[in-house]
Design brief:
The protein is mainly alpha-helical and 220 residues long. It contains three helices and two strands, in the order ααββα. The chain has helices spanning 6-67, 71-79, 123-219; strands at 86-94, 97-105. The chain has a two-stranded antiparallel ribbon. It is rod-shaped and about 145 Å long.
Length: 220
Amino acid sequence: MVNPTRMELTKQKKKLVSATRGHKLLKDKRDELVRQFMELIRENMELRVKVEKGLKSANREFAIARAGMSEEILNTALMASKKTLEIKQSFKNVMSVEIPEFAVNDSVGGNDIYSYGYAFTAGDLDDAISSLSGVFTDMLKLAEVEKSCQLMAAEIEKTRRRVNALEHVIIPQALDNIKYITMKLDENERSTQIRLMKVKDMMLQEVRQEKIRKEKVADK
């Protein structure tokens, strides 16, 4: 229980003002995070459908290519590639959440995705390689969006807990403390007034008695 003093009353009032302001800011932050999170969820669903469709198509074309080539030639062709990818990661701040961003530099090691010879490979392999190369950018974007969704969800939960703590614990507690201190101070003030009135009555009584005593002395 807090001490019922005027200094503590001032402290609790300042605490209430700060908690109320913080509650509003956090609530606005939570609402904006939820809005952006829902946009990311929609984007994630669209990308996932697109990536799954692309991978399904690439797998089908690889299966066709394998059917028309020996496993040895297929493995040799796939291992012949000298093309490499360089992925750079950066971050952007969204409502105090560090969201990852991926950038691809696919020119490292050459631009030709068909680094194998065409003499012993089937044309279906070219289609499969092209499909897989085309879906890679979407796969990378999907990884970026899914990680962003995870980070956003964690921040939303953390913000929600803070909003609830302010709304259901800190603000009501401050209000109760202010009410308690105000009541105690009023009681103390009334008690002080009563004591002062009693002291005044006692002093007036003493004055009257002194006056009576002096009058008796004068009559003698």
